[in-house]
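Progress report, Aim 2. The chain analyzed during this reporting quarter is listed below.
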Amino acid sequence: MKRLGTALHVVQNKLIVQSEEIVGSETAIPRGNSWVVDQKRTRVGKVFDIFGPIDRPYIIVRPNRGTDAAAHIGKKLYIDEAPGRDSKWKKLKS
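Predicted structure tokens for the chain:
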């Protein structure tokens, strides 16, 4: 689980997240459609778009259906990189 950043605003039912400062190649910009989770590893949504400065970009997160995007404002969000949690993987295994 890598820290994505802090949720700042909700615009058209999408979360705007300011990412952590990117230093060197250790910290990478997340890929599109990566799962975004909260501190309890509850899925919040997926990465929709990335924009802004290279050293500290903003990330648009499209929340899951039924998720209240405004409830996450001011909270830290993370990228879930746990293997086997991808929906495609689950479809293949079952």
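The beta strands are 2-11, 14-19, 35-37, 43-51, 58-63, 76-79. Residues 89-94 have pLDDT under 50 and may be disordered. These observations will guide the mutagenesis work planned for the next reporting period.
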